[in-house]
Amino acid sequence: MTASSTRRTAAKSRIAAVCAIAVAGTMLLAACGDQTKNGPRNSASAQAPFADLLPKEIKDKGVIKVGSDIAYPPVEFKDKSGRTVGIDPDIGAALGKQLGVTFQFQNGTFDTLITGLRSKRYDLAMSSMTDTKDRQQGIDSETKKKVGEGVDFVDYFNAGVSIYTRKGDDQGISSWADLCGKKIAVQRGTVSHDLAKTESKKCPAGKSIAIETFDNDLEAQTRLRSGGADAGSSDFPVAAYAVKTSGGGKDFQIVGEQVEAAPYGIAVAKGNDQLTKAVQAALNGIIKNGEYDKIISKWGVEAGAVTEAKLNGGS
């Protein structure tokens, strides 16, 4: 989440197969599909080309545990049947194919995901988490004090933060400065939360922003919908999805422009360099083969697509 901020794009495909041919009692392998100047590939390397980059313990288990706050549509959420769906789960599934493992999404509160990485509850955190220098260095964004070891990020999307209000009732709000003297509902620990705290300090005396925080964004939306707040804020793709779907498009409207555009990153605990590089290679793999673009297009968020998986690209 654009947390304490953001989301982007071409299409190629590759097919590889192997055929086992028994000749004079000897099993010979002959490639039947993808012929390269380096010779034929075996089926395992063709289907999971980056599997050997993974740490042995993860490769042996065949599972990558992913911490995620699964209440942030369209990035990660539960559908009507209870399945975990969205941009992140789709990208996770595509990465899993490249690495020969299953990305197993586990629900957690957003502001506890990095702690979950440190305690090894999760191998990765993938939850619309904005890549920031503070997070990389383990710095509390408000107090600027060191609170942990920090994490490394593999950046996979770009997104900004938006403000939204009840439809037809914008309260005169078109920018963050307009929130002075008003109440905003946000998810705790996100960039929206940080922005609200920062902006409130700039307000005139007696006109600070009343900030009400919630465990997840859907709870904040409910608060706004019921009239308990003047505005809400979340990452642009999430705000746009809420505007489009809540109440059949009759509940909310976006006001003003996106701010604080920044990369989303897949978070990995410091020191897990082998896993970080494996995830980066797999992400570049799905960007190159076109799977990434298909996923981004499926969810209608092409404006946030990236063309390269960068490490720690946030500021």
Task: Give a brief outline of the structure.
By secondary structure, the chain is an alpha/beta fold. It contains ten helices and twelve strands.
Shape field: globular
Q: Rg to the nearest angstrom? A: 22 Å
What is the rounded distance between the termini? Answer: 15 Å
Measured by DSSP, the beta-strand proportion falls in 25-35%
Q: DSSP helix count?
A: 10
Structural class based on helices, strands and sheet pairing: alpha/beta
Taking all residues together, what is the mean pLDDT?
Answer: 87
Protein traits:
globular, three-stranded parallel β-sheet, 29% helix, alpha/beta
Describe this structure in words.
Helix content is 29%, strand content 25%. It is an alpha/beta fold.
Detail the topology: elements first, then pairings:
Layout: E1 18-23, E2 26-31, H1 43-47, H2 56-61, E3 63-68, E4 77-78, E5 84-85, H3 87-99, E6 102-107, H4 113-118, E7 124-125, H5 133-137, E8 151-166, E9 183-187, H6 191-202, E10 210-214, H7 217-225, E11 231-235, H8 236-245, E12 252-269, H9 273-289, H10 291-298
Parallel strand pairs: 3-6, 3-7, 9-10, 9-11
Antiparallel strand pairs: 1-2, 4-5, 8-11, 8-12
